[in-house]
TrEMBL record:
Acts as a magnesium transporter. SMART domains: CBS, MgtE_N. The chain crosses the membrane at residues 292-312, 318-345, 366-388, 394-419. This is Magnesium transporter MgtE. Its main location: membrane.
């Protein structure tokens, strides 16, 4: 097991060997060693290489060979921008032409418009037109994710004719396992797996063996909705149609995995109170710019908490010991609210929470907060009683903790649900935001009770 863990931490290629072969200009040896690697490892080597090595690679590898690993390599947008800036324009254009259209579009969206125009101008006309059409779709929609490289057949074909059609289209298709069926008006009318087509009788017609219960997505659908559909139905590919049900393209599982990762990162960053996940390559000023908006809002909200404490100054002066329990009540309320928030945001993001289950979620979280609050309150009551031997103080602090945790847990669930109803991303209700709001509520509860029962404390 330890050996397996060690292997996972090591690169699956010999970087030093590849560097040496390049520096010694051993062209054939480098090509043989490099092209035997998995495309992931090729991309890893390329992403870690300096400009000199990359320029040598462009000389030794064809645009197609570079395209095979570059379209699957994960790098920052600025890295891709720099790569295309340093790469010969003709070479870059030929390389993009070798990629699947959706991956080429993803890269072109990163580049400046002038660069995109020059690259498209040098491309094959048909490829250029396909890519231009895909570039026009809005970001984060099904249209921006789809590829037009799919296999489609007519419902009027025989199975024998369809198999010939599949063989003709297969070399350019992104996936061959799912075949889409259209009528004479290019509308999507069915779907059939390659397996079902192979085992069907040659003389049967496609319309007789296809599955007419087609699940599709609209070209304008949000990418998160598409991801849910593919997850729920275990699709390898989902067809994309327009409002008239014309087949426009398909979205494959590899693109959806990227979307799921992107959406999870986005939700995580918002829960942490930043606009975007910080890159390790971000400058000090870029990192600060991403974090400042929420921090400034939280500063203002923090002043509200400070104002509340100021208004109860007289209460604190009379019983200074009350101040000792502020961190406990505020902290526990914040923790409870953040836990509830995480459950609600995840439920909304994954589609587990619908209109019928929202009330159930709110009641469950409120009940959970009350039960957790009571358990913590009993423990806190005993500790305060043993240390300070003041029953009324122990009762006030414990009761405040119970109410604060109940309200905090309920608000942690309700705030994202309310935002979802208002068509606002529920992940915006970040952890720091909920914690600060709960600080305000818990302090009002705590000092309100303490002031009410002041005569029993003195």
């Amino acid at each position: 097991m330890a050996e397996q863990d060690f292997m996972n931490d090591e690169a699956m290629y010999d970087k030093a060997l590849l560097d040496t072969l390049l520096l010694n200009n051993e062209i054939d040896a480098f090509r043989e060693e490099f092209l035997e690697l998995h495309t992931y490892d090729q991309g890893e080597y390329f992403s870690e290489a300096d400009d000199e090595i990359r320029n040598q690679m462009y000389q030794l590898l064809s645009p197609k060979e570079v395209a095979e690993f570059l379209e699957t390599t994960e790098m920052e947008d600025e890295d891709y921008d720099y790569i295309f800036e340093m790469m010969d324009t003709r070479y870059a254009s030929d390389m993009l032409s070798e990629m699947s259209f959706d991956n080429a579009v993803d890269l072109l969206k990163i580049l400046p418009r002038t660069k995109v125009a020059s690259l498209l101008l040098l491309m094959d006309k048909d490829a250029s037109e396909e890519i231009k059409a895909l570039l026009h779709y809005e970001e984060d929609t099904a249209g921006s994710l789809m590829t037009t490289e799919y296999i489609s057949i007519s419902e009027m074909m025989s199975v024998r004719e369809a198999m010939f059609q599949v063989k003709e289209q297969a070399p350019e298709a992104e996936t061959i396992y799912v075949i889409f069926v259209q009528n004479d008006k290019k509308k999507l009318v069915g779907v059939i797996s390659l397996r079902d087509l192979i085992v069907a009788e040659n003389d049967a017609y496609v319309e007789e063996v296809m599955n007419e219960r087609v699940i599709s997505v609209n070209v304008a659908d949000d990418q998160e909705d598409v991801a849910m559909i593919m997850r729920d139905y275990d699709f390898l590919a989902v067809p994309v149609v327009d409002y008239q049900n014309h087949l426009l393209g398909i979205i494959t599982i590899d693109d959806i995995l990227d979307v799921i990762d992107e959406e999870a990162s986005e939700d995580y960053s918002r829960l942490a109170g930043v606009s975007d996940i910080d890159s390790t390559k971000d400058t000090i000023f870029t990192t600060a710019r991403k974090r400042l908006p929420w921090l400034m809002i939280l500063t203002v909200l923090g002043m509200i908490t400070a104002t509340i404490l100021g208004n109860f100054e007289e209460t604190l002066e009379q019983v200074a010991l009350l101040a000792a329990f502020i961190p406990i009540i505020g902290g526990m309320a914040g923790n409870s609210g953040t836990q509830s928030l995480a459950v609600a945001v995840r439920g909304i993001s994954t589609g587990e929470i619908d209109e019928q289950s929202k009330l159930k979620l709110a009641l469950r979280e409120a009940g959970s907060g009350l039960l957790s609050g009571l358990c913590c309150a009993v423990l806190l009551f005993i500790i305060i009683l043993l240390i300070y031997q003041t029953p009324i103080l122990a009762l006030i602090v414990s009761f405040s903790l119970t109410i604060a945790m109940t309200v905090a847990t309920l608000s942690g669930a309700l705030v994202p649900l309310l935002m979802h109803r208002m068509k606002v991303d529920p992940a915006v209700a970040s952890g720091p935001f909920i914690s600060t709001i709960n600080d305000i509520i818990s302090m009002l509860i705590y000092f309100g009770l303490a002031t009410t029962f002041m005569n029993y404390l003195i």
